[in-house]
Design goal:
Number of helices: 23
CATH architecture of the largest domain: 3-Layer(aba) Sandwich
Number of strands: 12
CATH topology of the largest domain: D-Maltodextrin-Binding Protein, domain 2
Helix content: 40-55%
Strand order of the largest sheet: 2-1-3-10-4
Number of domains: 2
Structural class: alpha+beta
Length: 558
């Protein structure tokens, strides 16, 4: 529910299978005999163990490409990038990598079969950990404790965040600590220049008036629209005004020590009233509640959509693609940046801090696991270490001097067209430990070449403002929340239903299918049906206030 669901929803789907893993697995994710794995040791290894390490082993790995296509002609198990891992681990590594669309189904079937390969990479942490507790994967803590290579990237604090509710360390997580922080209102600044003399609107009313002005000047524009994102009918451009009111849909707010659904707040109601008005005026897209990804992208790029919400890590790549005309040749004149904070907040808003996005965790849901059925756990660990090598990181993000970058006076400059060639850029999918944002320095350098120093600075300054707000807001409590099983089952069961209720009532109110008085009745009904979810959130933060404060959860004091 709320932000907790939102953060994980990027790559997490519903659990499809609940059958047990095959016989031979025991509880707590240790080996078949219930013992913890024996990590590699520099001292005390037997001669047989040393000989075993000299021999080339054979292992299998199952992984996802995370939506990063592999070009035709690339051999998954034999290419210059994966060979770095294979050479480090002295192993023949056979890789199975389903298409992104097929991955979840095959992963579920693999877990249900119990016939796991030696190493598994997945973003579905909850599913993997459930099976790990039933014996599918090894606890990797002892390996981690003796691996400076992995520790250099994944700190002990990150490992603690990846720890299972049962207290085990099945997962070596993917780092996300290089990712720009925060989320904000991403605006077509060229439209602000054209229709508002380059002056940023300072209030909700001024933003609405600017949309009206653009729509009047260019009637074919779709100035305000939305993308249906899975179960969430409202997202991206459809939530910009809710964000200004500090009441983002499907989220939660901690206010006076109590947790509320944003749907229950007066700020949410006022934002809905404004959306209703803009819908009646024709400023809000009449198809806002049915736009799929393709329609959203077409309107966003080609129909003067003024603003949307997005994470900071998406801004520079998007700006680069616009400037290069990769989305449409006509987009080269489009400029984007995060809008600065409002100077005049809505009077209904309890506190401006509720408009701030929060920090993201330094890890994400991706992780590497070792099967409890592997016959060579030590070498499987070496494969994981191979993904943490600096050699692989350099190959992925920088390539080779003279081929993909130049160096002068200690400063490297990327050769953009070479670095971004699909024959090598696909390798980003192998950044399984440093993370997909670990090449931020080369990304920033690439962007500056395309955008120019001034435009790049404008974007970076706007990103800093968003990051500063996120630092003030801290981490969300839902990153750490753990309910008793009976409570968790109820929350998991009713959470999607509650989101459907929010979507239906909000869309009906915006489109005028129900009155605002009827909307108020829907809020009361929501509280009666689903209020227990937020009561449980409140109980959790009340009971764990000191612990959460130490972890950087600021909102426990809100």
């Amino acid at each position: 529910m709320g932000n907790k669901t939102k953060r994980s929803a990027l790559l997490v789907a519903a659990i499809l299978l609940l059958s047990l893993v095959a016989a031979g697995c025991t509880s707590k994710g240790n080996d078949a005999g219930g013992n913890s794995p024996s990590p590699l040791k520099d001292k005390g290894s037997t001669p047989d163990a040393a000989k075993k390490q000299e021999e080339k082993g054979k292992l299998k790995m199952f992984m996802t490409d995370s939506g990063i296509p592999t070009p035709d002609g690339i051999k998954l198990s034999d290419n210059p990038f994966i060979n770095i891992v294979k050479d480090y681990a002295n192993v023949d590594l056979e890789i199975e990598k389903p298409s992104y669309q097929e991955y979840k189904t095959k992963f579920d079937l693999l877990l249900a079969s119990g016939q796991l390969p030696d190493i598994v990479h997945t973003m579905y942490a909850a599913d993997a950990i459930k099976r790990a507790d039933e014996g599918a994967f090894l606890d990797l803590k002892k390996y981690y404790d003796q691996s400076p290579l992995v520790q250099k990237i994944i700190t002990p604090e990150m490992m603690e965040l990846a720890k299972s509710p049962s207290g085990h360390y099945y997962r070596i997580p993917m780092a996300a600590n290089q990712s720009p922080q925060g989320k904000g209102l991403l605006v077509r600044f060229d439209l602000v220049k054209k229709y508002n003399n380059g002056k940023w609107p300072e209030s909700v009313e001024e933003w609405a008036d600017l949309m009206r002005k653009i729509k009047k000047a260019e009637p074919d524009s779709v100035v305000l629209t939305n993308r249906v994102n899975g179960q969430r009918v409202l997202s991206y451009g459809g939530i910009v005004f809710y964000t200004m009111y500090g009441a983002e849909p499907y989220s939660v707010r901690v206010q006076d020590g109590k947790v509320y659904s944003t749907f229950q707040l007066p700020e949410y109601r006022e934002a809905t009233e404004l959306m209703r008005q803009l819908y009646e005026e024709g400023v809000l897209d009449k198809e806002f509640a049915v736009n799929d990804l393709a329609k959203w992208q077409d309107k966003y790029v080609n129909k003067n959509v003024l603003m949307s919400t997005d994470d900071a890590n998406q801004v520079l790549p998007f700006a680069r693609n616009l400037k290069q005309g990769k989305t449409n040749p006509n987009t080269v004149t489009q400029e984007i940046a995060f809008a600065p904070p409002l100077k005049k907040y809505p009077s209904v808003l309890k506190d401006p801090k509720y408009t701030y996005s929060q920090l993201s965790l330094p890890i994400n849901s991706h992780g590497l696991y070792i099967s409890s059925k592997t016959k060579d756990r030590d070498r499987a660990w070496k494969v994981i270490e191979g993904f943490a090598t600096e050699q692989l990181r350099e190959a992925i993000f920088w390539g080779k001097e003279g081929e993909t970058y130049t160096a002068k006076d200690g400063k490297r400059s990327p050769i953009v067209e070479k670095l971004n060639d699909p024959s090598r850029s696909w390798s980003l999918q192998l950044a399984l430990i440093p993370g997909y944002t670990a090449g931020r320095e080369v990304g920033d350098a690439t962007v500056e070449q395309v955008l120019g120093a001034d435009y790049t600075k404008t974007i970076l300054d706007s990103m800093k403002a968003v990051a500063d707000q996120a630092a003030k807001a801290g981490l969300g409590f839902w990153n750490f929340e753990q309910f008793p099983k009976d409570v968790a089952d109820q929350v998991d069961k009713k959470g999607p239903e509650a989101n459907d209720f929010i979507s239906k009532a909000t869309v009906e109110a915006i489109m005028g299918k129900i009155t605002m008085r009827q909307f108020d009745d829907r809020v009361k009904e929501f509280t009666e049906k689903y209020g227990f979810i937020f009561d449980e959130h409140t109980k959790y933060i009340t009971a764990h206030k000191d612990e959460l404060r130490k972890k950087g959860v600021m909102e426990v004091e809100w």
